[in-house]
Amino acid sequence: MSKHYDLGRTGEQIATDFLLKKDYEILERNWRFQKAEVDIIARKEGVLAIVEVKTRSTNEFGNPQDFVKQKKIKLLTKAVNEYVIQNDLDIEVRFDIIAITQSKEKFDIEHLEDAFYHF
């Protein structure tokens, strides 16, 4: 496997562990619908948190969250709409980004709640 893939998987595990420590219930990881993959679907206090995880080995080319583009947001929105319908949910939905940057032997984590918009 590529180093990029390994870093991404490591970041997703770090994000999952981070959310669990913050009392989120992890409902799904890497949930797919058509061309979209939702990294983490979690629930906390009546809110469905859709979490896009971005992990980078450096901030040299920008912050991790800067790499979530409009096309990805559109795909996530469509996928999550389907998830809510499939699971017959009546719940507030929030889109978050967990930005992770590797610095030497540790990872810096930033949780950006409501990073896109409500729907």
From TrEMBL:
It comes from the Bacteria. Gene3D superfamilies: 3.40.1350.10. SUPFAM superfamilies: Restriction endonuclease-like (SSF52980). Pfam families: UPF0102. HAMAP family: UPF0102 (MF_00048). NCBIfam families: PRK12497.1-3 (NF009150). Belongs to the UPF0102 family. This is UPF0102 protein ACFSRZ_06950.
